[in-house]
Specification:
Strand order of the largest sheet: 6-8-9-11-10
Shape: elongated
Bound molecules: adenosine-5'-diphosphate
Largest sheet: 5 strands, mixed
Amino acid sequence: MLDKDGVILTWNPGCELMKGYKAEEVIGQNYSMLFPSFLRDKHLPEKEIAIAKENGRYETENWRRPKSGELFWAFVVLTKITDDSGKFVGFVKITQDQSEKKKLHDQLQSKIEDFKRMNTDLNNFAYTASHDLKAPINNIEGLSLLLKSELENRVNNDGISKIVELMHQSALKFKVVITDMARAAQEESEHYTYQSFKDVVDDIKLLLSNDIKTVQAVFHEDYAEAPFVRYPTKHIRSILQNLITNAIKYKSPKRKPEITIKTTLTEGYTLLEVADNGMGIEEEDKKRIFSMYQRVDNDTVVEGTGVGLGLVAKLVEGNHGKIEVESKVGKGSKFKIFLR
Ligand code: ADP
């Protein structure tokens, strides 16, 4: 048990076995002593406490430092405790040594890379396809309606009205199928699981490997402070895939794309930052880009539908998070995704 500030109150034989410290060596000390110094320097102990206090619970996997100094990979759950009157008194912290599991997991990971890629493709398909198809089918439906009313005003249209009517019916049916598909994909993706940022980004890099090679994009990644988040798999993948794709698509013509992805614990959120050195976004366009089907009219011929960032904003805000962008034209952009 920890008090409100993370000071250790109780220490059982399990803790002693795992960490090597006796009760008298740790009780009364801050639990930050169990973190390696590179995580203490990032104020991770205080940040984890702040999130558990805010959300009632925080779980993560990261390095921990026992008395021997030999770091081990730990699964940690911090749960906020209140007394009978509802007053906040501290935390229960549970740590599991995951070193063996991590080793096995890493081995397995490398062996199933191909299967994971296929699975990612399939998972993404229904979701992206249904969203991306909505805009063109809406257009076809609207245009066929317009054409129909135009033709009806003409006396002799040689039965073309009938054909257009059939076209319009087809477009409507198509719309129903797409809407159902989107709903099915949405329901399926509302399942919260424990996501590793590194694994998700690795999957996406595999998926985009051709584009990455073509433009010679370089990635800088730092997940040390917040390696995991509890989020629906498809949502987190969709968010990252859209941001990474954009960082590649909207690169500067003058230099190779450098994409920096970083996760931290900030203001009670898990903050995901995706920064690029691309063409940047004009100040007046910054608000618009998060609306569905909005694109910025720029000179470059880059293919797109304007769905991506709108979808990202929906997925983030739907989970009580927020999204911000900082950008300088000609320098690059940084998207900040605050995940809850
Ligand atoms: P799409 O890429 O399909 O046009 P998005 O919703 O993903 O749609 O993006 C909306 C607009 O925001 C894009 O048209 C582009 O002008 C701008 N944009 C998005 N990401 C970036 C970026 N990393 N750098 C510069 N501009 C961007």
